[in-house]
From TrEMBL:
Biological source species: Jimgerdemannia flammicorona
PANTHER family reported in the protein's UniProt record: PTHR31836, SRCR DOMAIN-CONTAINING PROTEIN-RELATED
Gene3D superfamilies, sorted: RlpA-like domain
Keyword hit for Signal: yes
Annotated region (Disordered), positions in chain: 25-77
Domain of life of the source: Eukaryota
Record key words, sorted: Signal
Protein name as it appears in the record: RlpA-like double-psi beta-barrel-protein domain-containing protein-containing protein
Keyword Ribonucleoprotein in annotation: no
Basic residues bias: start-end ranges: 30-49
Length: 206
């Protein structure tokens, strides 16, 4: 009898041990700790974008053009075309002209426009007056070509005009009663003065 009791006790203990072992140590079904959650690791692959910068190079081709031209001073250069007139230098007396000469109506001289003079302070010092051998204009009228020295300044003349002394006017055979001839062609014979587009002051004589 005692032996049976011992066996029964052993069997009960075995059953209890089996029950506890199947339940796990201190865990109950339904407990949150019962569920093992495996954390999913998300792998993110970052796309690397490479920006290519294109630099546009503009090549400028420079073509050097050499222009060959004849340099002239003033309108038309050496050859001019304009009006010609005459004026009294000093009738029966001696008058000082722009170049400082004491001339009269018997002097064969010509006055050219103020636009060719560059020494406003004292025209006596202008290259027109000081050039070696004097400066001349050359004009042809009715087959007669004459060189006349430039010794005076004409304040009322356009750049292409000439104003002759009575003696020079007569030498060409021009008519005193006409007084003005248009479109007369003439040229600087031995020196081309520098054209002055902005002359300051105009004393006719110096």
């Amino acid at each position: 009898m005692r032996f049976s009791t011992v066996l029964l006790s052993i069997a009960v203990l075995i059953l209890l041990f089996s029950s506890v072992a199947s339940a796990g140590p201190g865990y109950k079904k339904g407990d949150r700790r019962w569920k093992t959650t495996s954390k999913k690791t998300r792998t993110s692959t970052r796309k690397t974008s490479t920006k290519t910068t294109s630099t546009k190079t503009t090549s400028t081709k420079t073509t050097k053009t050499t222009s060959t031209s004849t340099k002239t001073n003033g309108p038309g250069g050496a050859t001019q075309s304009g009006d010609v007139t005459w004026y009294s230098v000093c009738n029966g007396c001696k008058g000082y002209v722009a170049c400082g000469d004491a001339d009269d109506d018997s002097s064969v001289i010509v006055a050219i426009s103020k636009y060719w003079w560059n020494s406003a302070a004292n025209p006596n010092n202008d290259a027109i007056c000081t050039v070696s051998g004097q400066m001349h204009i050359k004009m042809t009228y009715k087959g007669k070509t004459i060189k006349v020295p430039v010794r005076d300044k004409c304040c009322g003349c356009k750049p292409n005009d000439l104003d002759f002394s009575p003696a020079a006017w007569k030498a060409f055979g021009l008519d005193f009663s006409v007084g003005r001839y248009h479109n007369m062609t003439w040229e600087f014979a031995d020196y081309i003065p520098k054209y002055n587009g902005n002359p300051s002051g105009c004393p006719q004589t110096g």
